[in-house]
Structures are given as structure tokens and as C-alpha cells.
Design goal:
Two copies of one chain form a homodimer. In chain A, the strands form three sheets. Chain A has a seven-stranded mixed sheet with strand order 1-2-8-9-10-11-5, sandwiched between helices. Chain A is α+β, with helices and mostly antiparallel strands and about 425 residues long. The first copy, chain A, has eleven helices and 17 strands. Chains A, B: It is an enzyme of class 2 (transferase).
Chain lengths: ~425, ~425
């Protein structure tokens, strides 16, 4: 994993009118506590159960879920409870997806939410099961060890903490094949804040990756405003991260607002802040994708519509022959032309121009001088495809297709 | 390459009312000659130029070409000459795709056809350039070394031979990353015959793979009958071979009829014979696909339509996580459920059943006892998915995603 050494774990930058840091996550905004513990669900003994609590005063929430028709039990449960637009807590486990587990698996998700509600109520925060979302990730098809999950829930409630440590513990506890935890927080000059954590390292694709993501804010916002902000953010961030075209049964992105800052941002401000946090998390997910040796941004410009630009960029980002060439640092632009040529979009082969890292390799459908000599040895590769037809452009984040990807996905059930 | 040791190079079997052999190809049917020579186009010095000649008495022909919007110059040329429904000859080169080469590349294809026509005319067979189809395969984006191509054409004409040897030489000369030549011939008790050769080892996908294929017959048939037979055959064979979802700029399948047998089969007989030869070639292509360690047949049954079955099987056959699991002999049926769940088809997650090599691993959307213990160590894997909704079924041939696939496609420009 090259990302360990090349990504600064705590970069601070100005974005969306605030300061973005990676040292905090879901418990950064006021009104939130989080925890992450070792419940014994994972055979490895690593942390595997996380809890995020909204202490209010408000409990508004929204969610976006996988587009896969095969949905895991926790997705079905969380979609149901989210219809109220309210969430008190989110419980997340790694070590098992609880997908394709039938009616028993759904009962397990329900039982987990009831246990969280009961433990929080005993702890002094009156909670109903219908206020608890459940997220799971891991191997599809096995029932969860419910004795361990339920014991873990009680411990996770006891461990709830505010500030940095609780959120970071939670970010660790949701990791599967991730090599690093992923969190980010955006602070608006001490006024209001957005924080988030995510996991996801394979099966990254449109309409969400195999990813779990919880975003919190202390802004005052209604469930409808949160829903609008979350959909705007995921459309431009997680939906444009596509590692291998696969879409999980468990993808869940949740947004919870406590209102504890007493600040009511405009919808535009809220959208921008949530998008900034999701964008940073998506970048972290790309950098930590399974087997990644190249971080690739595929941009299709000059398209007649945003839809065409998106489909074109996605088609190239998924092409196994393009991805293996990038793994080999080979500026094989002919494969890019072959890939874009099968995208179901408007294009004129004689108007397509391609560049790698700014160096033209194909101009108006014909190879440019020196195209075979472009240096792609760096970890970051910008692949730009100009269709020469219109004004629309979209960028998709992806990775190369490496030996490590094959190894990681063939050697172990995950 | 496991295929070398496990596939009998010369199996003989009864199919479509005839006897199918792999010891003959395009020069098996009466009225055809073929040759394959070393023109010096390939840096390796291997054979790289092939010629197929129809000596008549008839010259009927049909073709099917890539669905890629980016089409190589020889595809554009051959599509144009095929509008006449007549072909005297096909010239094929490996060592260069002549794609994305602009107007100069098209002139090269035209010039090659003219040289073939001229050489054949000098040899005693009056031929016009408009009767010569051109096929190319290799790296996209480079102009062909035309001096070598044109010298090679003259030599290929001189080498034209009937019987087995000419066709086999031609089958060798069109290979790129193929490890074995691919040919098949179907004999109807000495009455009429169909023969074919193909190349293709990567980029195998729907609407044709990176494949060149020439099929010949000594039957009496019109261009329209040949066109119908070829479309029926490719729909059920090459279009159902999908190694990596990629579609080449150069895919070409041609069918030529000499009428030399004086036998006029019915359309159904012609369809069945051409389909049998194409099916055998498709099987050979799967077995020799780049990096293959598993030969996989993905069948989706119980679909509400053939279209749904096809799209479902194709979606699973392309899924990188399913393919890497198969490489690891891992019966990870959860990935199969996740893959079929994103197919844009009608399905009910609670009615899906899956089996590997006949052993049930998932019944009505829930894991079956012993599912994790199914043995997938054999090279051949049958993956059956029953949607439980209707009566339609389609099988797609595919392969696993292995280290060798990554190696072959990253280490060398091809």
C-alpha cells in the first residue's frame, strides 16, 4: 500500500468556507459521541463494532442506500426507520454483512437496534429501536454471532466519548480490508461543523461503493434539507468513485444533525459543507482501494451532456485493459480509444483527443508524436479525454488493476 | 496456459448433422486456398500475414463487424467492399491494428487490397480491389510498415495452397497473444463443408471480441443467406463469449461461399453448420483467453425473457470480484448475488438460487448448508443462477481474473 507513505494523515486545507481536517470525524460536531470496540465478531480480534450517538437537541437524519436489488438486512431495516426522518443512533459492525441471510438475518438487525435502544435508555438517553440505524459490512451469506454483537452493544454504549477519540475509535472499528481509517471534519470558524467517517476498499462503484459512511453536523436542519444535501453530495463524490464496477449489498451513507450549534446554514452552505467532507472521504477511499498502485482521475470533457460525460468517464474507468495498462505505467492510449468507443454516448471518433498527465497522446483520433514515451511512473495519473463535441465534463476517481487486487480478492473470502 | 495440456488438439465429434474436426480450417471446403507467411510486420519474426482465396465458382460473402464506434481502417474498408455481397479474397495481418491511424491508415488498407488484387491477377485469378476484404490486429495507433505488408502480399499469393496446410498456416499467421491456432471444419459426409479460423485471446466481449474470424463453405448460398446464417451464428456464439467486457476496434467475422460442392443447403442447415463451427471456435477462444486458469460457463435461467437472461449472465461474467473468487477456487456465492443484483433486469432477491458445478450454494436468496465447502479446484466451472421467475435461459462463456491476465496486459503494449 503506497498510500500509507504518500498521504499526509492530517492535512489541513480551506474548502467550502471552512477548515477541513482529517484528525476528527463523526464526534467532531457538537452533540455527538462515538465509540468503537472489539466485540469478537472478527476472527482477527480487531475492533468490529462502532456506535454513533446524537445527543440532540434535534434528531433529524437522512440516508442514501445501495442501488443493488439484493439488499442486506441492515439496509432494509435502516431504510425503514429512516422514513421517520429521525435517528438517535447508528450502530455499525464489520466482520459480517448480514446479507442473504433471510428472515432470520432481518430479525438479527432488528434485535441489534433494540439492544442499542435498551442500553442507551439504561444509560440515561431514552431511545426507541425505531431511532437506531444498523449498518453491517463483511462476508455475504453468514448469520452474525448475535451473542457477541449484543454484548458488544452494551460495551459500546459504555465507551461513548466525545471529541476526537470516540470518532477515531469508531472509524477503526468499521474497517474491513481498509488499511487506514478514514475520517474528515469541516469547521466553520467555531460556528458550525460537519464530520464524517467511511470505510470502503473494494467493490467501489456507482450508486455507492461497498461503503459505510456516517456524516454528522451540529447545524440546525430539517430531515428534508439533510436529504437534499446528502443526495447532492453523494452524486458528486461517492457516485464518482468507481474502482471495479461492483456495487455492494450493504452500501449506506447516513447524515445526522444535532442542531447543537444553533446555526442554521442555507441549503447551499449545507450542501457545500457535506459535499466537502464526502469528497475528502472519497479521495481517502480511492487512495486506500484494494490493490491500488495508481490513483487515477479519468475526466471526459467536451461531451454534449453531463450524462454523456459521466457514462464515458465511467466506461473508461472500468475497462480492465486500460486499468492493467496503467498498472504497467504504459501510456497505451489505443485502449482508451477502444474503451470510450463502446460507451453508449454521442461521439465522433475523429474528434477525440486524449492526454496523460497533460501530455497529448491522441489528437482528433490519431496518435500524437511521442505518445508512447509519456512517463506514467508517478502514483497519480490524470487521464483526460476531450470528445470535442460540447461543453460538459465529469471526473471519475478510479485505480489501476494490479496483482495485489487479484491477490486480495482471490486468496480470501471477503 | 493450462489449455495446451487439457484440450485435445484434434477432437472429432458429431454435430449439426456432420463431423467436426479441428485439424482443418478455412481451406477445408472445396474452392478455397489459404496461406500464412512471415512478412516481418511483427518484431518477433513470427508469421504475420494470411490470405484466404475463394476460387469459386461463386463469390458470395457476408460480414459482421465490431460495435465499437471507434473502428479501425480495415473495418471501414471491409464494411464498404462487403456492400457488394461478393468477396474473392481476405487478407489478414497481425502485428498492427491499423486503428486510430487517420486518413493515411485508410489509404494503407486500400493499398493492401489493391496489392492483393494485382498479385492475384498476375497469378491468373482476375481480381479487383473491391473484392478483397482486409483485417488487422495488434497494437492500436501505429501505421503499418507498408513496404513489408506489400512484399508479404506477393509472397502470400505465391504460397497459396489447398487442403489442410494452407488453412493451418493462415491460422498461425493471425495469432497475437493466442498461444495456439484456432480452426475447425464441419464435413457433411463428403457432400458440403464449412471451415473456419479465428484469433482472439483478450478483449473478448459482446458484439464480438478482439477477434478476427474467417469462415468458408463450399455450399451454394446467396449473400443474403450467408448474412442470415452469420448473424444467427455470431449471436449465439461469439456474442456470448465475454472475457473482460472490452470490445475491440477491429473485430471482424467473414463468411465466404464458393458453391464448389454444388449442394444447396436449406437456410436452417446452413445456420446450424455455421453456428457449429463458430461455437467450436468460441470454445477454443475461451480456453486460450489471456491469463485463463478457469473455463467458466455462467448460466442464468428462470428469467422472464432471453434478454434478461443474457444481461444477467453477462453482468455476472464481467464482475471482477466474482472472477477473482473463481481464480482462487473460492465458492463465494455472496459475490454472485451482489453481481446479479446490479443487473438491470427483473428479479426477486428472495427467489434467486445459485449452484457451482451442480452443488446448491444459495436457495431462494439464502445460503445453503455446506456452501463454503464446494470444491472448485477443477479447471471447468459451471455457475448456474436460477432467477425463479420465468422460462428463459442463456449461457455466457467467460474466464477467471488471474495474475496472468494482469501480467499479460500490463507488461506489454498489445
Amino acid at each position: 500500500m503506497s498510500s500509507d507513505s504518500t498521504i499526509d494523515p492530517h492535512p489541513t486545507r480551506e474548502v467550502a468556507g471552512g477548515t477541513l481536517v482529517r484528525s476528527q470525524g463523526v464526534s467532531g460536531p457538537a452533540g455527538f459521541r462515538a465509540s468503537g470496540i472489539k466485540a469478537g465478531i472478527k476472527a482477527s480480534g480487531n475492533a468490529d463494532l462502532a456506535l454513533v450517538l446524537n445527543e440532540g437537541p434535534e434528531l433529524a437524519a437522512a440516508g442514501v442506500f445501495t442501488a443493488n436489488k439484493v439488499k442486506a438486512a441492515p439496509v432494509l431495516w435502516s431504510q425503514q426507520v429512516l422514513t421517520t426522518g429521525r435517528l438517535r443512533a447508528v450502530v455499525l459492525n464489520s466482520g459480517g454483512a448480514n446479507a442473504c441471510t433471510g428472515a432470520g438475518g432481518f430479525q438479527d438487525a432488528h434485535k441489534t437496534a433494540e439492544e442499542v435502544a435498551s442500553a442507551l435508555s439504561n444509560w440515561g438517553t431514552e431511545t426507541g429501536a425505531v431511532e437506531v440505524a444498523v449498518c453491517s459490512t463483511g462476508l455475504i451469506g453468514d448469520r452474525l454471532p448475535m451473542d457477541k454483537v449484543l454484548t458488544g452493544v452494551t460495551e459500546a454504549v459504555h465507551e461513548l466519548a466525545g471529541g476526537i477519540s470516540g470518532g477515531t475509535d469508531a472509524a477503526y472499528a468499521i474497517m474491513t480490508t481498509d488499511t487506514v481509517p478514514k475520517q474528515a471534519a469541516l469547521h466553520h470558524a467555531g460556528k458550525w461543523n460537519v464530520g464524517g467517517m467511511a470505510k470502503g476498499a473494494g467493490m467501489l462503484a456507482p450508486a455507492l461503493a461497498t461503503m459505510l459512511c456516517v456524516v454528522t453536523t451540529d447545524a440546525v436542519a430539517t430531515a428534508a434539507q439533510l436529504d437534499a444535501a446528502l443526495r447532492a453530495a453523494t452524486r458528486l463524490t461517492f457516485d464518482r468513485l468507481d474502482v471495479d464496477g461492483a456495487t455492494s449489498t450493504n452500501d449506506t451513507v447516513l447524515l445526522l444533525a444535532s442542531g447543537a450549534s444553533n446555526v442554521t446554514p442555507t441549503q447551499d452552505e449545507l450542501n457545500a459543507a457535506v459535499t466537502a467532507v464526502c469528497d475528502d472521504l472519497a479521495e481517502q477511499m480511492m487512495a486506500d482501494a484494494e490493490g491500488v498502485t495508481k490513483r487515477v482521475q479519468v475526466t471526459v470533457s467536451g461531451a454534449v451532456s453531463e450524462h454523456d460525460a459521466l457514462i464515458g468517464a465511467r466506461t473508461v474507468a472500468r475497462d480492465s485493459l486500460v486499468k492493467t495498462a496503467l498498472f504497467g505505467s504504459d501510456p497505451n492510449w489505443g485502449r482508451v480509444l477502444a474503451a470510450i468507443g463502446i460507451a453508449p454516448i454521442e461521439l465522433d471518433p475523429d474528434k477525440i483527443s486524449v492526454s496523460f498527465n497533460g501530455a497529448p497522446v491522441c489528437i482528433d483520433g490519431v496518435g500524437a508524436p511521442g505518445a508512447r514515451d509519456v512517463d506514467l511512473s508517478d502514483i497519480d495519473i490524470a487521464l483526460d479525454i476531450d470528445l470535442g463535441l460540447g461543453e460538459h465534463a465529469v471526473t471519475i476517481r478510479t485505480t489501476d488493476l494490479s496483482h495485489a487486487y487479484v491477490e486480495e480478492n482471490s486468496a480470501y473470502s471477503s
